[in-house]
Structure to design on (105 residues):
């Protein structure tokens, strides 16, 4: 997935559809990003902060409560690519299979 955060956009992860994900990844694509621009990824469980740094990758085990702070400037969008590594070692329930098909994975 590719996501662009513009000024004032706030993303908070409460729940994702129930899929067999094991690792989430975020690849940052914005050059010269500064912490004061906002858009920082925050691990809610540990308060660790990941300021977007061009050409860097953040990986974390899921599920994990996290949020992305609002982008506070309008000159540059915060560009990133994110996705998940999926585990299919267990048999999916009917609901999980439907959610997976609906998501386009």
């Amino acid at each position: 997935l590719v996501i662009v955060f513009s000024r004032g956009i706030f993303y908070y992860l409460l729940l994702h559809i129930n899929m067999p994900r094991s690792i989430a990844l975020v690849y940052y694509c914005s050059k010269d990003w500064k912490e004061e621009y906002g858009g920082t990824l925050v691990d809610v469980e540990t308060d660790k902060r990941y300021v977007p740094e061009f050409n860097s990758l953040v990986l974390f085990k899921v599920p994990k409560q996290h949020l992305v702070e609002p982008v506070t400037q309008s000159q540059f969008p915060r560009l990133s690519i994110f996705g998940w590594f999926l585990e299919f070692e267990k048999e999916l329930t009917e609901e999980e299979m439907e959610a997976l098909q609906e998501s386009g994975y």
About this structure: Strands lie at 2-5, 11-12, 21-28, 41-43, 49-50, 57-61, 66-68, 78-86. Residues 10-17 have pLDDT under 50 and may be disordered. The CA atoms of residues 32 and 90 lie 42 Å apart. The helical segments are 94-103.
